[in-house]
Specification:
Helix content is 29%, strand content 27%. The chain is α/β, with parallel strands linked by helices. The longest helix has 13 residues, at 22-34. The structure holds shikimate-3-phosphate. The site of shikimate-3-phosphate (S3P) has 12 residues, from helix 1 and helix 5.
Length: 427
């Protein structure tokens, strides 16, 4: 088993750039593949998850050329994907599997999506049920897991869907399927989840309307004009360096060109409430997404109670928030975050067990965790369980340990942040 040795860090003084945004890259590849002509995606995320989407569309007959930081995609037109020659392998990527399903739902062929061990344990019922209501025939293992076979139907029924969960993957799947329906498809969710699909559809002039938490798309969409887009950098990837600068004394960091979409920066807002010194510089709009350079200074943090409303915009950063909370003053409580058990690993279990291994005092709850602050973390051997966000959260934890931390399975960072270890060591 591969491992990496990590040591205590001293102060940071740096200006860095993290990788491009994963969620926006997936969506840009998908919509470009359906456009009527050549599209250019600048500053795309060249990571394993995004390659799952790129290879899926190559398998569906789309020509995609990748250079170091640009993709040239020759869109086939909305109804012209080709019957895949093989099963579509979404590998580790939930976003690929769930969003692509909405597109396959409207094609005139049958296709099967498979995934790796982790993805094959993640629920698909959340998209199967609404797609069936749109008249798509779908079969899946236990009606919930990959492999999942979708019999496409180019004449989908529009849907009015009241989702019980706030999931951008479910929302995007339904909006994508709505492009193939004859009429208005409407999606409502309890708390607004990340809204990159809606923003990109607006940027592409697709007939989408948003009123409060109600999103409507008028189908059928006949044509997506070819487009060019530049992806801002990923706030989730930036979060590890934000946390490092906060925890290490006398530190300063500027992270350039970060997407500061309000549905993504719950982590930053929660940290500010905890006493963090974080400022947005040079704010601007890039292709309908707000972007800024993020300035972070080391800060003394207080504990917090995370509210239900905070969870969707913080979801991928909760393992990191738990890590940071071990160093804050007071007891932090994270509740209403049961969704975390359904991610690349059961993130409630993995982060609680691994931080406990490092000497943290955390009580696992069914829907979250309670974290005692001000604990001294100790040298230990921990495991990422092949979950990229757990690996990077534990890296941040190791930076305050007097001594050595050994992390097993560090290579999973390739899923969202291929150069994470180089950047982590360089700051
Ligand atoms: C994502 C949505 C979130 C997030 C995932 C990426 C997306 O999942 O956890 O990492 O790109 O739409 P859910 O929408 O299922 O909560």
């Amino acid at each position: 088993m591969k491992e990496i040795k990590l040591f205590k860090k001293s102060k940071i003084n740096a200006e860095i750039e993290v990788v491009p945004d994963k969620s926006i890259t997936h969506r840009a590849i998908m919509l470009a593949s359906l456009a009527s002509g050549d599209c250019v995606i600048k500053n795309f995320l060249s990571s394993a998850d995004c390659y799952s989407t790129i290879n899926a569309f190559r398998n569906l007959g789309v020509s995609i050329t990748d250079t170091e930081n640009e993709l040239l995609i020759k869109g086939t037109g909305i109804n012209c994907l080709k019957n895949p020659t093989a099963q579509i392998d979404a590998e580790n990527s939930g976003t690929t599997a769930r969003l692509l399903s909405g597109i396959l739902a409207g094609q005139n062929f049958v296709s099967t999506i498979v995934g790796d061990e982790s993805l094959s344990k993640r629920p698909m019922k959340r998209i199967i049920e609404p797609l069936r209501q749109m008249n798509v025939e779908i079969s899946a293992v236990e009606d919930n897991y990959l492999p999942m076979t979708i019999k496409g139907n180019p004449f989908l029924k529009p849907l009015l869907y009241n989702s019980k969960i706030s999931s951008a993957q479910v929302k995007s799947c339904i909006l994508f399927a709505g492009m193939f329906a004859d009429g208005i498809t409407t999606y409502k969710e309890p708390i607004l989840s990340r809204d990159h699909t809606e923003r990109m559809m607006k940027y592409l002039n697709l007939p989408i309307e948003i009123k409060n938490k109600k999103i409507s798309l008028k189908g059928p969409v006949k044509k997506i004009e070819p487009f060019e887009i530049e992806i801002p950098n990923d706030p989730s990837s930036a979060s590890y360096f934000i946390a490092l600068a906060l925890l290490l004394e006398n530190s300063n960091i500027i992270i350039k060109n970060v997407c500061i979409n309000p549905t993504r920066i719950g982590f930053i807002n929660v940290l500010i409430k905890m006493g963090a010194k974080i400022t947005f510089l040079n704010q601007r709009i890039l292709y309908n997404e707000p972007v800024a350079d993020v300035l972070v200074k080391s800060s003394r943090l207080r504990s917090i109670k995370l509210n239900k409303e905070d969870v969707p915009s913080t979801i991928d950063e909760i393992p990191l928030l738990a890590t940071v909370a071990t160093q804050a003053v007071g007891v932090t409580e994270i509740r209403d975050a049961k969704e975390l058990r359904l991610k690349e690993s059961d993130r409630i279990k993995t982060i609680c067990s691994q931080l406990t291994e490092m000497g943290a005092k955390i009580i696992e709850q069914e829907d979250g965790m309670i974290i005692m602050g001000g604990t001294k973390l100790k040298p230990s051997k921990v495991n990422s369980f092949n979950d990229h966000r757990i690996a990077m959260s534990l890296a941040v934890a190791s930076s305050v340990v007097d001594g050595k931390t050994v992390l097993l399975n560090p290579d999973c960072v390739k899923i969202s942040f291929p150069n994470f270890w180089e950047l982590f060591k360089s700051v």
